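Retro notes (design track)

What went well: tokenization of the new backbones is finally stable.
What didn't: we kept losing track of which sequence belonged to which structure.
Fix going forward: every design gets posted as structure first, then sequence, in one message. First example under the new rule, 496 residues:
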């Protein structure tokens, strides 16, 4: 029996399935699209939120900066506490260091001569009266010779005065003895060795005549009534006595007057000689430039020797001549200055005009670019009364102490002029304030490694303080040294 292979045939879909297939496909497509859109919306929304959060975080962190401990240690930050301070507005003007006019002179040759010795050089410190140089000058020799002449004349008239004074004193004593009627032996014993000049002979002659006539009259008196002597003789003897007495008195008065006049004239001659000697010495001192000691100038090695001495203690700033050079009157030889005190000269211009109200004695600050690590204090000496046409400014001169010798005449300086009255305000040191894009700000220490930027508004400014009108409160710790470094770090983080 043979068996034929069977063949299977595919079954046909039912009419219901054929109708539902397109609908199911549409539903699947729509569902997939809805899921895809929903998924994309969710992703888009999450990205926007992350961006917003990141922007907020960046906004918060852009005003703060954190530094590692190593960088902080290397920066050596310093800070100060914000507090109330006295702030006074100041203007800065340029100035120069100058010599103190009262302690700066040119030592010049007082007359023609030869510069025989030069004993100092620029930079030498000299004492008052120290010998600087020696000039040989004939004019000085003549002046010294005049002094010697006046000295000799004074000695001569002084001796005459001594003699006249002695004679006057002896004469007074001599007249006292004559008035007492002393005998000639007594007079001779008392005054034989004592000078009386020409008055001795004149007085003794008149005194002898008086004594003689007096004795004759004394002898005639007992005989006046006896008739042995004529009355006429007696009257003649009495007349002779009166004449002798008058002659003696005349000689006595004349001797006393002449002796007194001679002593007075000698005293006047001494005074005149002293004046002439003083004038000669003043002329010599004028030529020398210093008072010469009163010594015997005959012992001088040379009358023409002119010693130039320092009129005050100071430093030789310059020297113009060398040894053996011929100098003429008025030639500059040295410049001597006392630089322990100097002048600071500045100009007050129109934009600094309130500074003319500064009073003498006001303290001002001076900074020197050549010495950047130090500020000097000067004292206002005077402010000019007239505007200088060449500079259109009023000169200001202040004195400054220079005992340590750091300052030199001619150095450039910056002078801080206080303007207006000071006032109490919240203030920080000027180095704490930095600026970027026309905005001033400081850095406040939040922690040891974290710092916050604080925008501030400033007011009055001086070398020491800057007024802060907004942006800070008292007690904030503000960075001073290192503020610029923090600014640089903050700007670098902003660029990243």
């Amino acid at each position: 029996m043979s068996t034929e292979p069977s063949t299977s045939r595919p079954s046909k879909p039912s009419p219901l399935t054929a109708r539902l297939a397109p609908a199911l496909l549409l539903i699947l497509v729509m569902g997939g699209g809805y899921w895809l859109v929903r998924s994309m919306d969710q992703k888009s929304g999450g990205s926007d939120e992350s961006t917003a959060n990141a922007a907020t975080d960046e906004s918060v962190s852009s005003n703060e900066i954190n530094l590692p401990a190593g960088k902080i240690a290397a920066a050596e930050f310093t800070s100060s506490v914000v507090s109330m301070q006295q702030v006074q507005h100041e203007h800065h003007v340029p100035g120069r260091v100058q010599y103190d006019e009262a302690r700066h002179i040119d030592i010049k040759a007082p007359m023609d001569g030869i510069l025989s010795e030069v004993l100092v050089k620029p930079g030498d410190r000299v004492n008052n009266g120290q010998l600087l140089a020696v000039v040989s000058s004939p004019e000085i020799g003549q002046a010294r010779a005049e002094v010697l002449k006046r000295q000799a004349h004074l000695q001569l008239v002084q001796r005459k005065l001594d003699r006249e004074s002695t004679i006057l004193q002896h004469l007074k004593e001599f007249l006292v003895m004559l008035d007492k009627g002393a005998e000639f032996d007594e007079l001779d014993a008392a005054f034989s060795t004592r000078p009386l000049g020409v008055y001795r002979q004149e007085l003794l002659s008149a005194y002898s005549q008086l004594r003689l006539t007096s004795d004759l009259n004394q002898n005639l008196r007992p005989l006046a009534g006896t008739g042995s002597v004529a009355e006429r003789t007696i009257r003649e003897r009495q007349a002779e006595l009166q004449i002798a007495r008058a002659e003696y008195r005349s000689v006595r008065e004349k001797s006393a007057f002449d002796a007194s006049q001679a002593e007075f004239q000698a005293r006047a001659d001494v005074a005149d000689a002293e004046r002439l000697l003083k004038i000669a010495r003043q002329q010599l001192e004028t030529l020398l430039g210093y008072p010469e000691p009163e010594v015997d100038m005959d012992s001088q090695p040379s009358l023409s020797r002119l010693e130039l001495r320092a009129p005050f203690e100071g430093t030789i700033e310059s020297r113009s001549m060398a040894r053996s050079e011929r100098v003429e009157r008025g030639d500059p030889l040295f410049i001597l200055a006392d630089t322990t005190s100097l002048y600071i000269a500045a100009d007050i211009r129109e934009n600094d005009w309130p500074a003319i109200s500064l009073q003498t004695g006001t303290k001002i600050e001076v900074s020197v670019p050549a010495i950047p690590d130090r500020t000097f204090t000067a004292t206002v000496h005077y402010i000019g009364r007239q505007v200088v046409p060449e500079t259109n400014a009023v000169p200001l001169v202040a004195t400054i102490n220079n005992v340590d010798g750091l300052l030199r005449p001619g150095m450039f300086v910056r002078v801080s002029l206080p303007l207006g009255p000071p006032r109490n305000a919240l203030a920080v040191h000027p180095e704490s304030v930095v600026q970027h894009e026309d905005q001033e700000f400081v850095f406040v220490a939040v922690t040891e490694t974290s710092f916050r930027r604080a925008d501030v508004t400033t007011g009055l400014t001086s070398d020491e303080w800057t007024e802060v009108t907004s942006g800070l409160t008292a007690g904030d710790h503000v960075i001073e040294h290192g503020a610029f470094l923090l600014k640089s770090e903050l700007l670098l983080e902003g660029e990243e």
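Added context from the reviewer: The first helix runs from residue 15 to 61.
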